[in-house]
Design goal:
Chain lengths: 224, 224
């Protein structure tokens, strides 16, 4: 009985995710699900990325158990922000995103970041209708986090290691981290950056732009 | 149907948790469930605490999705360590702890740390049979984490803010964090410390010792 229920929940989620994907593609919007532990720097990354992407028009859906704090921060970078408060739910599901999409003007957007609830585990299994899943790790959280959370590594198309400006102040074996990532997912793109210092941000911005070109099928559709 | 299943799972968990509590109390072992985000410093805290508690005899049950890395680290501090690999399960449940207790020699222990899977959300709702729930936050994860994860704040008896040696290097409004904690749980004990520099560790060690005295009902039963 239990397995049946879980299957039903996931089936409903997948149906709504397909609907989200269809709606976003119809509007020409590329979407990126940003996943990572609480405090790894997801909001800071998106905040720093938006101005670097101009004139690409960026919206953000941001999930947290509680508070509007992330939306307030992101509202300084774009007017198209929707905060979802999940209560006790530890990840975003497709129905959350569906609800939030309804509050955005998709015709005014080229790119949508979906900032998931801070959690290295639960968000991985839920399709939201995104084009890309990005997993974020921070050097301040230790060099063992890829090995200890293999599913986010294997299910992401891009992994970002943030806060590299803090490497001088924390014990972090960069070679060990890179080797764990490579072993778990040889094909993943690993980008090392700091949203604060700006180091490595350009490579990430270029990756997003190239992904948008792939999605649109032709470079001419990109603004700018 | 779904709610029924969830209720059954939680009911079974509570029954096993009660059994764990009974077994631990019968053996005179006080147990502390340590919860917090991935990389917030749970293992480092336990590693640094064990030698400061001597001659109190400490065991550790440590939960991760994958790897034995935490157990390997903790084995340098105590011989009584059991690693649980939960696979894709995002928190420890009472049956995990029951299994792990069976592999410990409780007669050789006074205190048991149960290091939960790195996750600020899911572990909160599961009774493991512990005497105390401790929630851990790190300054490197940002000053908004208490407000954004209210349930771990309200359900913990002690909150620890770790990595305070890194405060000079990160933006962290200590007054804001303290105010959020106070608002959400006026009765909680908040301890600010660094497992690396040792700052604040003595207050935490004293708190653990006093909690053990409460649990045993009389100070004389404490070793040392």
């Amino acid at each position: 009985m239990e397995i049946q229920v879980v299957e039903n929940v996931l089936k409903l989620n997948d149906e709504l995710a397909a609907l989200n994907r269809q709606n976003l593609h119809a509007a020409g919007v590329v979407s990126i699900d940003v996943m990572g532990a609480p405090g790894c720097g997801k909001t800071a990354l998106i905040e720093a990325t938006i101005p670097l992407l101009a004139p690409i028009r960026v919206g953000v859906i941001v999930g947290d158990l509680a508070t509007q704090r992330d939306a307030q921060r992101l509202a300084r970078a774009t007017s198209q922000v929707v905060q979802i408060n999940t209560g006790k739910t530890c990840h975003l599901e497709a129905h959350h995103v569906r609800q939030a999409i309804g509050r955005l003007d998709l015709r005014q957007l080229d790119l949508l970041f979906i900032e998931n609830v801070g959690n290295l585990i639960c968000p991985v299994g839920f399709d939201l209708g995104q084009d890309v899943k990005v997993g974020v790790f921070a050097v301040t959280d230790g060099d063992d986090k890829a090995a200890k959370h293999p599913y986010i590594v294997t299910e992401s198309q891009v992994l970002i290691l943030t806060k590299i400006d803090l490497i001088p102040h924390v014990p972090f074996d960069l070679d060990l981290f890179r080797a764990d990532v490579k072993r778990l997912n040889p094909d993943v793109t690993l980008l090392e950056l700091s949203s604060t210092s700006g180091q490595g941000m350009q490579a990430w911005v270029e990756w997003v732009k190239s992904r948008m070109i792939c999605a649109s099928g032709h470079a001419e559709s990109l603004p700018g």
